[in-house]
């Protein structure tokens, strides 16, 4: 008797749910939030056009790209929207649009129309950061914001990294501290990365962190937490809260808050290092750039005038 292999005509629901969770876990929380927003926008648009959203035809996705282009959406936003629609189709068992000639041609046309140069936010360089720190009020919120701004700059940290830091991730050393980043954009699997944080004489990040923790009574757990208007310490901050703190600090010193973002602290450290003549590899030790070409773009931009070929004759 020949044994026939057991074949499921469809994947059992429980197994499919587990598979879907793994697919979603491969993406960051920020990406998933953006995907949900994009998918909801696509479904709403399909309803107004009286077309099917799932499964959608390639022509429908192409028309959606054109519609959003007319609304002034950026190239990165449009590309992410298509990725979100493709992800939703894959999870529902339909073919994605990664190989659709119609959709890919629409995306190429979009890039030619808009260009692909990213919109750079202003870096919070060391001089700007000092001003931002100086204007923080002498309140619990002010102490938290001062610590967050200073440590975010000193560690060239992303906002997603700041909000998950714990007190135990900072280990004091002579002259500074070791900071362990348990998970980050370039380390989604959580292998962990350790960088050095200098206290220094200008930013004094570790002093600001110590003042915040003592004032808030924080000895363990999350390092940065919400504070309500009554001065009560709450739970975790969102990465959007970090962006708002940076924008508010920029506005407080007379700068346009729209020019700054959650990335400004990280960009500020890199730009300040480049302007000070620090070696790109040493900057990368802190910034943890895996692609040095990206880092070199910051260094080159910072030295466009300092190392200009015309200094000797213009």
Task: Put the structure in a nutshell.
With 314 residues, the chain is mainly α. It has helices spanning 13-25, 29-49, 58-70, 75-91, 101-114, 126-134, 140-154, 159-162, 205-216, 239-252, 264-275, 280-287, 292-302, and strands at 170-173, 176-181, 193-198, 225-227, 233-236.
Q: How confident overall, as mean pLDDT?
A: 84
Distance between the termini: 91 Å
Classified in CATH, the superfamily of the largest domain is Intergrase catalytic core
- The CATH topology assignment of the largest domain is hpI Integrase, Chain A
Order of strands across the main sheet = 1-2-3
Q: Describe the biggest sheet?
A: 3 strands, antiparallel
The CATH architecture name of the largest domain reads Orthogonal Bundle
**Weakly predicted, low-confidence segments:** 1-12
Q: Which sequence of SSEs, written as H and E, runs from N to C?
A: HHHHHHHHEEEHEEHHHH
Helices, by number, come to 13
Give the total of domains.
2
Q: Can you tell me about this structure?
A:
The radius of gyration is 24 Å and the shape is globular. The chain is mainly alpha-helical and about 325 residues long. It folds into two domains: about 15-115, Tyrosine recombinase, N-terminal domain (DNA polymerase, domain 1); about 125-300, Orthogonal Bundle (hpI Integrase, Chain A), CATH 1.10.443. The chain contains 13 helices and five strands. A hairpin with a 5-residue loop joins strand 4 and strand 5. The strands form two sheets. A three-stranded antiparallel β-sheet has the order 1-2-3, with no helix packed on it. It has helices spanning about 15-25, 30-50, 60-70, 75-90, 100-115, 125-135, 140-155, 160, 205-215, 240-250, 265-275, 280-285, 290-300; strands at about 170-175, 175-180, 195-200, 225, 235. InterPro entries: CB, DNA_brk_join_enz, Integrase-like_cat_sf, Integrase_catalytic, Integrase_recombinase_N, Integrase_SAM-like_N, Phage_Integrase-like_Recomb. Keywords: DNA integration, DNA recombination, DNA-binding.
């Amino acid at each position: 008797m020949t044994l026939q292999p057991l074949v499921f005509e469809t994947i059992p629901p429980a197994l499919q749910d587990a598979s879907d969770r793994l697919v979603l876990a491969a993406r960051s929380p920020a990406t998933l939030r953006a995907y949900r927003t994009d998918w909801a926008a696509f479904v709403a648009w399909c309803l107004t056009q009286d077309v099917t959203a799932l499964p959608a035809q390639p022509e429908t996705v192409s028309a959606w790209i054109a519609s959003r282009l007319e609304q002034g959406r950026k190239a990165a936003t449009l590309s992410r929207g298509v990725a979100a629609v493709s992800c939703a189709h894959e999870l529902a068992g339909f073919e994605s649009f990664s190989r659709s000639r119609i959709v890919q041609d629409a995306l190429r046309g979009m890039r030619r129309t808009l260009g692909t140069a990213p919109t750079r936010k202003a870096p919070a360089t060391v001089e700007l950061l000092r001003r931002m720190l100086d204007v923080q009020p002498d309140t619990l919120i002010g102490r938290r914001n001062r610590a967050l701004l200073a440590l975010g700059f000193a560690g060239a940290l992303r906002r997603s990294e700041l909000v998950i830091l714990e007190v135990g991730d900072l280990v004091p050393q002579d002259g500074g501290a070791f900071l362990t980043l348990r998970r980050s954009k370039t380390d989604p699997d959580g292998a962990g990365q350790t960088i050095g944080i200098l206290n220094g004489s200008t930013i004094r990040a570790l002093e600001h962190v110590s003042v915040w923790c003592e004032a808030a009574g924080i000895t363990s757990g999350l390092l940065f937490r919400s504070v309500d208007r009554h001065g009560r310490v709450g739970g975790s901050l969102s990465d959007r809260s970090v962006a708002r703190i940076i924008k508010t600090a920029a506005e407080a010193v007379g700068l346009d808050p729209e020019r700054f973002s959650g990335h400004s602290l990280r960009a500020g450290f890199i730009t300040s290092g480049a302007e000070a003549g620090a070696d790109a590899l040493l900057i990368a030790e802190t910034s943890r750039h895996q692609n040095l070409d990206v880092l070199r773009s910051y260094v080159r931009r910072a030295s466009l005038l300092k190392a200009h070929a015309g200094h000797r004759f213009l």
